[in-house]
Design goal:
By secondary structure, the protein is of the alpha/beta class. It folds into 2 domains: 194 residues, Nitrogenase molybdenum iron protein domain (Rossmann fold), CATH 3.40.50.1980; 115 residues, Nitrogenase molybdenum iron protein domain (Rossmann fold). It has 12 helices and 8 strands. The strands form 3 sheets. A 4-stranded parallel beta sheet has the order 2-1-3-4, sandwiched between helices. It starts with a helix and ends with a helix. About 20% of the residues have low confidence.
Length: 352
């Protein structure tokens, strides 16, 4: 029976996950991580204002926008899952002493919420990038069936006897504003515009005009990238513009480029949540029924469940996307622009 097999699959993955968590417990001891070429505060440029950014995706964007006008310190290293990242004492200190703090917002940085609140309490000017864009709710990016109709509070209570603890936790998280606005480059362009207004107000740049010029140039690159992605999507027949992902991360991408999000292996916006055997069995049936050719995993989180689900369904590819973290420098996802472009190319190759 499929549900029984998937129960076994989840148990095996959980054991693997515990091992990985034990191996990675020292990561929080690393110092603030740089994105791109950044200024050493001990050098002669120490008088530059310091802008601290939580995620490496936004860190790259801020670095491109401010250029040499500020020191940009990015907290989360490349390859980090932002949902379970914990800051070291050095990183907390950097956030508390920044001239400005840039965060994603909408509870995206789950393990940093207290630290962000503490920095704000210390008087650090803080900008939530998502506050500048038009947001969608989870399930608002073309998501059907395996999602929103089952995830309001009444539905949760009605289906209690069918849900295990992980499933209920997933339902609780599967609501509210989707924080993954950065999967849409035009929303990122809007966020950059708001970010620059904030920085010009809060940060004493030596040459504010240079920041404006740099930001305008970067927004032009984002607009050009949007055209590239749209051209790649045009190569995919409309009936094949469907996404099954590791967790719910590409709602904004789907909203921008006309995709349907069929489902997610973890039916939540956070990788810290679980998936029930019932939900996975339903998703497997849905993949078979719709003929979905590929399941898209994350480069920054475990793909064990994704691979197990693909094995269960059979005849479906597993494609890794850069969803919530950049790739290593020099990789296909080494910058935000490269990350979005690589994802679009991989989607079009898998679906077209």
């Amino acid at each position: 029976m499929r549900t029984t097999r998937i129960h076994s699959m989840i148990a095996a993955v959980a054991v693997i996950g515990l091992g990985l968590a034990a191996c990675g417990s020292d990561e929080g001891d690393s110092s603030a991580t740089e994105v791109g070429e950044q200024v050493d505060a001990s050098d002669s440029d120490a008088e530059l204002p310091t802008i601290v950014v939580t995620t490496n995706v936004l860190g790259d964007v801020v670095d491109q926008v401010v250029g040499d006008s500020a020191e940009v310190i990015t907290i989360m290293p490349v390859g980090t899952d932002p949902h379970d990242f914990q800051a070291s004492a050095q990183e907390v200190d950097a956030m508390n002493n920044a001239d400005a703090l840039i965060v994603n917002g909408a509870a995206f940085e789950e393990g940093l919420l207290d630290v962000i609140e503490g920095a704000e309490g210390e008087g650090v000017p803080t900008f939530e990038a998502i506050s500048a864009v038009e947001t969608i709710e989870f399930g608002g990016g073309g998501h059907e069936e395996h999602g929103d109709e089952d995830h309001d509070e009444d539905a949760d209570h009605d289906e209690d006897e069918d849900h295990d603890e992980d499933d209920e936790h997933g339902d609780e998280e599967h609501s509210g504003v989707d924080p993954h606005f950065f999967t849409d480059p035009m929303r990122m362009a809007t966020a950059v515009d708001g970010m620059v207004d904030f920085l010009q107000t809060e940060v004493a740049f030596a040459d504010p005009a240079a920041v404006e010029v740099s930001a305008d140039a970067y927004i032009a690159e984002l607009t050009s990238l949007d055209g590239e992605v749209a051209s790649l999507v045009d190569s995919i027949p409309e009936e094949r513009r469907v996404l099954v992902t590791n967790h719910e991360v590409f709602g904004y991408f789907a909203d921008r480029y006309g995709f349907e999000v069929v489902g997610a292996v973890i039916p939540s916006g956070s990788t810290t949540d679980g998936a029930s055997a019932r939900e996975l069995a339903e998703l497997a049936e849905q993949i078979e029924d719709t003929g979905v050719p590929a399941i898209f995993g994350d480069t920054s989180s475990s793909d064990d469940l994704v691979n197990a689900l693909a094995d269960e369904v059979g005849d479906v590819a597993v494609i890794e996307l850069y969803s919530e973290s950049l790739g290593e420098p020099g990789s296909a996802g080494g910058s935000y622009l490269e990350m979005v472009r690589a994802n679009a190319e991989r989607m079009s190759a898998a679906l077209a």
